[in-house]
Design brief:
Blueprint (H helix, E strand, L loop, with lengths): L1 E3 L6 H4 E4 L5 E6 L4 E5 L8 H5 L3 H4 L4 E5 L16 H15 L5 E6 L1 H12 L4 E7 L15 H11 L3 H11 L8 H11 L6 H16 L18 E6 L11 H6 L3 E6 L6 H4 L1 H12 L10
Parallel strand pairs: 4-5, 4-6, 6-7, 7-8, 8-9
Antiparallel strand pairs: 1-2, 2-3, 3-5
Helix pairs in contact: 4-5, 6-7
Pfam families: Abhydrolase_1 (PF00561)
Keywords: Hydrolase
InterPro entries: AB_hydrolase_1, AB_hydrolase_fold, AB_hydrolase_sf, Epox_hydrolase-like
């Protein structure tokens, strides 16, 4: 069963919930071909926090669906004993099925980029085109130490969530510090400091750091499977990203058969917010192209 909360193009009006024990909250706006937007991780994150500002531009031509991924926003908290990317990809399919969307374009930011890759690898028939924005976990940095600065500051905040530590983390997210207004900081602090606001993120990154220290990978690593992706793929990065450094674009750019790269100068990890107009223009141009023929590919 799906419930809605109103009409219009704001947070409440676009909100819907798939009811049940593993409830999923998401936003839907617009009409046309399907476009799935998958947010990243971090304290106080949600689908709306990452992509709410982009809905007016994208919903003019697409049926846009923006889930709160499991563990984030108003969606259920999953069991981390099951691989998270599988859980999140299956949750995204539930939302698409509920909205009657069979084959969609997918935009994934950071963790959402990893989920997008999981989705296209395991369910290639459901994805037409792929946009990965500073995707996390699909290729390790070649030069930068792991975990990267942005991830270290995120983990530091989750273990001791103070406003000062939140500001330190947010400063590592952007290329131009003027973007971090007090209003933006206060909004994220309200979400992150709400009861239970950091519990899942803390547990998620504790598990991720433990896996990184062990060096163990379940099955074939994602970077070794990128050559399986046949969908046209746009890689977008901020030149000054301190979470997923620009160098991490090199392997997917080479491995994905039909890939191209766009770099936003003076930009960090939040290109969809920090360079909103340019990001929307680049993504819409890419999604609006004619499909390549098999001869061209």
């Amino acid at each position: 069963m799906t419930t809605t909360t109103g009409s219009g193009l704001d947070r409440d009006a676009t909100g819907r919930t798939l009811e049940g024990p593993e409830h999923l909250h998401y936003h839907r706006a617009g009409e046309g071909p399907g476009l799935l937007l998958l947010h990243g991780s971090g304290p106080g994150v949600s689908g709306w926090a990452n992509f709410g500002a982009n809905l007016p531009a994208f919903s003019r031509d697409f049926t846009v669906v923006v889930p709160d991924q499991p563990g984030f926003g108003a969606s259920h908290r999953p069991d981390l004993s099951t691989p998270y990317l599988r859980t999140a990809a299956e949750a995204a399919l539930r939302v698409l099925d509920a909205e009657g969307l069979d084959r969609v374009d997918v935009v994934g930011n950071s963790l959402g980029g990893s989920v997008a890759v999981e989705l296209v690898l395991e369910h290639p028939d459901r994805v037409r085109r792929l946009v990965l924005m500073g995707p996390g976990g699909i290729a390790p940095p070649l030069l930068a130490p792991q975990p990267t600065e942005g991830i270290r500051l995120l983990v530091r905040f989750c273990e001791d969530p103070t406003r000062e530590r939140l500001v330190d983390w947010m400063r590592a997210m952007v290329g131009d510090q003027r973007f971090l207004t007090e209003e933006r900081i206060d909004e994220r602090w309200r979400a992150a400091s709400a009861p239970g606001g950091t519990d899942f993120v803390r547990d998620f990154y504790r598990a991720a750091m433990a896996a990184m220290r062990s060096g163990r990978v379940r099955g074939v690593p994602v970077w070794a499977r990128l050559g399986e992706i046949r969908q046209p793929t746009l890689l977008t990065y901020g030149r000054d990203d301190r979470v997923t450094p620009l160098e991490t674009a090199l392997h997917p750019l080479r491995a994905i058969r039909d890939a191209e790269l766009h770099v936003f100068g003076g930009c960090g990890h939040w290109a969809m917010l920090e360079r909103q107009v340019e990001f929307e223009r680049v993504v819409l141009e890419f999604l609006g192209r004619e499909a390549p023929t098999e001869e061209m590919r």
